[in-house]
């Protein structure tokens, strides 16, 4: 059976935007119902509700689609409104065999920061892989204003979406680099899972500036929008759902994501933890490094 990838991305985009509404509403309610899956590994009612919503929306159209989501769900739900297949109707259809696809869902990336009220880095990530390679991704960032910038005023939170299909220009990104940073090497890495391995990588790269922030999607987006040249996380803890969507969008922009040894990440692997960590390089990284 074949599936039109453009329709799948349309549905993912709409479901991700609806997820932004769900996340904001739960945040405003103040009842996050935080539980711990492990040390430093929280989950909230928003993570669970959003994943149920996305899985249910995808299942309406493609009951056979293989889906790997971060959270363990007891039962699915039926969405009250069917997401549209036609959001991206201006693109030509891209037919692919459904059996070759896996959809990776991170309903809420940067849960820890979400529980602490540091909401700018929160994102819903939906990545699509085909035969092990990321081919499309949708990211939705709920807590930003209409310009896509972080803002304190909760009244102005409208959210923004970024999406891309490899081979087609990415939608929703811009070059955000500050002029004074043009000649610097800027490295983004974890705020809350910093350890010796991460520190060693930072020392080796010797960046001019280190940004420590929460969320895999948030830091990958920094590379995509040129706020950082490289994102390193050479340690355990990151899973395929954290990086599939950012990886696809980065690839669509000409960037690269590998494990720290420089090898490809295979999304068809049955094991879902990416044990070696990840390293994301910006398209202009090689040029920047050569100047040193
Ligand atoms: N040790 C870990 N345990 C659980 N999740 C992790 C761990 N390390 C990274 N992650 C996931 O990767 C994201 C990026 O890590 P960091 O914020 O440290 O840079 C986290 O927000 C978390 O995703 P999630 O919030 O979806 O559980
Ligand atoms: Mg989590
Ligand atoms: Mg995550
Ligand atoms: Mg998550």
From TrEMBL:
Annotated keywords: Hydrolase, Magnesium, Metal-binding
Query: Pfam families given for it?
Result: Inositol_P (PF00459)
Q: Where does Mg(2+) bind?
A: 70, 106, 108-109, 242
GO MF, any single term: inositol-1,4-bisphosphate 1-phosphatase activity
BP GO annotations: phosphatidylinositol phosphate biosynthetic process
What's its EC?
3.1.3.57, 3.1.3.7
Fetch the Gene3D superfamilies from UniProt: 3.40.190.80, Fructose-1,6-Bisphosphatase, subunit A, domain 1 (3.30.540.10)
Q: Which SUPFAM superfamilies match?
A: Carbohydrate phosphatase
Entry cofactors: Mg(2+)
* Coiled coil feature spans: none
InterPro entries, from UniProt? Answer: CysQ/Inositol_MonoPase, Inositol_monophosphatase-like, Inositol_monophosphatase_CS
The GO cellular component terms are: cytoplasm
Identify its protein family: Belongs to the inositol monophosphatase superfamily.
Family annotation (PANTHER family) = 3'(2'),5'-BISPHOSPHATE NUCLEOTIDASE 1
* Protein name in the entry: 3'(2'),5'-bisphosphate nucleotidase 1
Organism for this UniProt entry = Heterostelium pallidum (strain ATCC 26659 / Pp 5 / PN500)
Q: What is the lineage of its organism?
A: Eukaryota, Amoebozoa, Evosea, Eumycetozoa, Dictyostelia
């Amino acid at each position: 059976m074949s599936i039109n990838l453009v329709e799948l991305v349309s549905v993912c985009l709409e479901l991700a935007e609806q997820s932004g509404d769900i996340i904001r509403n739960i945040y405003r309610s103040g009842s996050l119902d935080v539980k711990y899956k492990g040390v430093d590994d929280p989950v909230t009612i928003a993570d669970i509700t959003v994943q149920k919503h996305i899985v249910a929306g995808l299942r309406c159209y493609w009951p056979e689609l293989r889906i790997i989501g971060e959270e363990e769900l007891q039962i699915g739900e039926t969405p009250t409104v069917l997401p549209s297949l036609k959001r991206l109707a201006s693109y030509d259809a891209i037919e692919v065999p459904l059996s070759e696809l896996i959809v990776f869902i991170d309903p809420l990336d940067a849960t820890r920061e979400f529980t602490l009220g540091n909401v700018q880095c929160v994102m819903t990530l939906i990545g699509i892989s085909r035969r092990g390679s990321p081919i499309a991704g949708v990211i939705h960032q709920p807590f930003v204003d209409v310009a896509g910038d972080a803002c304190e005023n909760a009244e102005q939170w409208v959210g923004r979406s970024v999406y891309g299909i490899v081979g087609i220009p990415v939608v929703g990104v811009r070059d955000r680099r500050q002029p004074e940073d043009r000649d610097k090497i800027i490295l983004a890495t974890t705020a809350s899972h910093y350890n010796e391995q991460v520190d060693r990588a930072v020392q080796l790269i010797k960046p001019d500036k280190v940004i420590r922030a929460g969320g895999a999607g948030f830091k990958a987006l920094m590379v995509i929008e040129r706020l950082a040249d490289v994102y390193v996380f050479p340690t355990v803890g990151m899973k395929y759902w954290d990086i599939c969507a950012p990886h696809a969008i980065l690839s669509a922009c000409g960037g690269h994501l590998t494990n720290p040894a420089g090898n490809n990440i295979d999304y068809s692997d049955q094991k879902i933890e990416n044990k070696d960590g990840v390293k994301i390089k910006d398209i202009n990284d090689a040029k920047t490094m050569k100047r040193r």
